[in-house]
Amino acid sequence: MSQTMRGPHTGPAPDAGTAPEAGSSATGSGLAPEVVRRALEGQPDAWETLVGHYHGYLYRVARSFRLDDATCDDVVQTTWLRLLEHASAVRDPGRVGAWLVTTLRRHIFSVLRSHGPGSAPAGLGVMDPPDPGRSPEQAVTASDRAARISVALRRLPAPDRELLALLMDSSSSYRAVSAELKMPVGSIGPKRARSLERLRRELDAVGVDRELVSV
Fold it and tell me: Domain check: are 89 and 142 in the same one?
């Protein structure tokens, strides 16, 4: 990479960057392939355009895993550094967005694994979002149920949590899950069934009515 290239923006930027254009896929480039190609070759103006386009989107993905600000900073910065280091691995400039999101998620899962079995990916730990229309009694009940669900989730093996998190992400197809977890597509359904059965047993163990949660 060119030594004159500016490094990726690394500070907190909740509103930085732009979301992918309407009508495009969540991880489609949205940028002219020539701009992406020049960015990957180390041209500073193109790199700044690329970072400006995706930086905020990567933050939103990271925050969807309920990471704190410092961890969001770390995983997004690491994702940009990986792109700097492995630009040649991006064969199709039109798929740079997919490469960035895949790299980000892999690093997030690595961080979660390093934190041990107490870390649950997003989409699993908050099954009962706040509702301003609830009474105080209902809010207390919901909070208690959410805490029990979190306990049940923490008891699951990390591979089960990762699989369920990806499957609960509406943007993840079976093929995307297969690529992320290096698992044959045909194995996902049976693995999902086993993971859900383990989750149901853990929910029973902590006294959660399974009819009240989507498993």
Answer: no
The boundaries of the domain holding residue 175 are 136-208
| CATH number of the domain within which 60 lies | 1.10.1740.10
What does the angle CA 64 – CA 67 – CA 69 come to, to the nearest 5 degrees?
110
Residue that is written with structure tokens 């020539």 in the block? 34
72 touches 55 (CB < 8 A): no
In this structure, are residues 1 and 84 in contact, taking their beta carbons and an 8 Å threshold?
yes
Residues 6+ apart with CB under 8 A from 165: 120, 121, 122, 123, 124
pLDDT, tens only, 146-187? 677 778 888 889 888 888 877 766 556 778 888 888 889 888
The residue with greater pLDDT, 104 or 212, is: 104
Please check whether residue 198 lies inside any domain of the structure.
yes
Total number of domains in the chain: 2
The DSSP string of 75-87 is HHHHHHHHHHHTG
Asked if residue 44 lies in contact with residue 4, where contact means CB atoms within 8 angstroms, the answer is: yes
pTM exceeds 0.85: no
Report the share of the chain in percent with pLDDT over 90.
8
